[in-house]
Amino acid sequence: MQSPTTNKDKIRKPLLALRAQLSKSEQQEKSAKIVEHIKQSNVFMQSKKIAFYHAVRGEADPKGLFNSISNSNDNQQFYLPLLSSDKNQGLVFAPIDQNTQYKNNAFSIPEPIVETHALLDAKELDLVIMPLLGFDLTGSRLGMGGGYYDRCFAFKQSQPKKPVLMGFAYDFQQLDEINAEPWDISLDMIATEGNLRVIEAHPPTFT
Ligand code: ADP
Ligand code: MG
Prior knowledge:
Blueprint: H1 4-20, H2 24-39, H3 42-46, E1 49-51, H4 63-67, E2 77-83, E3 91-96, E4 102-104, E5 110-112, E6 127-130, E7 134-135, E8 141-142, H5 148-152, E9 164-168, E10 189-191, E11 196-198
Parallel strand pairs: 1-2, 1-6, 6-9, 9-10
Antiparallel strand pairs: 2-3, 4-5, 7-8, 10-11
The protein binds adenosine-5'-diphosphate and magnesium ion.
């Protein structure tokens, strides 16, 4: 019998290929629609500390959420993830503004350059916009295979209310079923160009 992990590895390849086929303009058009759905949602409007990510390799791009904010809502602070030096922690989050400087990490993804004391504990975030390769409608998430988000938000297994974890994805990344493993942390919501879904089994405190 195949282990679920092997199964996951198998589906990553075709999903990467599908994403690579998108043109730059399709990527931008779909990303703008996803951003619009999120901006109109209560969960976004009520969130003060919001993490998102720097899109690479054809990922749907959430930066429109941040760009729109400088002139609209002074209450919101945006954060980007950094690879933690502590492997068990996975990620830490740095506050950013229009003047933030960046340097590439080991995966060639730009990370904010900030003082250590400015880093935020993941438990303090209200909303986390997460990249993914695939998702299903039970909220299972397939990442690139590093398990960084699973490690960082492992505390949600026992403290599920905060932060709200929201997948940011193209509709074609939806799968029938992902075999979630014990360490996999589920998404609470999924935003695609088609709609913004709340995963039903999750605490609906944020709708
Ligand atoms: P992804 O979530 O990026 O798709 P996986 O769910 O396949 O990746 O996880 C990749 C690896 O990360 C797993 O094989 C596991 O060893 C490790 N991992 C994930 N979560 C944890 C955790 N909470 N503690 C320790 N290791 C973890
Ligand atoms: Mg996982």
